[in-house]
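> Could you send the COMM domain-containing protein 6 prediction when you get a chance?

Sure thing. Input:
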Amino acid sequence: CEQIIQHLNHKIPGINTAELCQRIQTAGVDINVGDLAKIANTLSFLFSTAARNNLSTEELITTLGSGVSTLPKHAVQVIRHVWNEQGKAIAVSEDAGNMATVGQFVDMKWKLGVAMSSDTCRSLKYPYVTVTLTVADPSGQITDKSFEMTIPQFKNFFRQFKEMASVLETV
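Output:
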């Protein structure tokens, strides 16, 4: 809940559900990443909707209690506590509803490799660059996207980054 509030306040780019799932499993709770991602999406929707409608803690809990009968009592208590402590801190921008939702860039890693051989070719000696982008989607889920480029493709990629950097310096 706290990570979701931080994400909604733009203090962190997203929720790394794989890492969080591992921490929860280490604590002895049996849950998989997919189920945790669904829970995170639901809580994100709940908190953002409550913030947009400027709900008090009691209004949120009353609404939550009338609409969801399967939610355990301790889960409602956690939601109540987090919303009471940090809910008012969620900044709801007036034009947030008008903005297109896109992912947020978190990190980029790259490595240079050389393919030496394969099943069909004995001597490749083919250089390539592998890039891994870490991206937080609009709901806050952090994912890695990887791709490989040839050296000419990488040079073009690098040239485009240099162009972006020079444009950003003029702003």
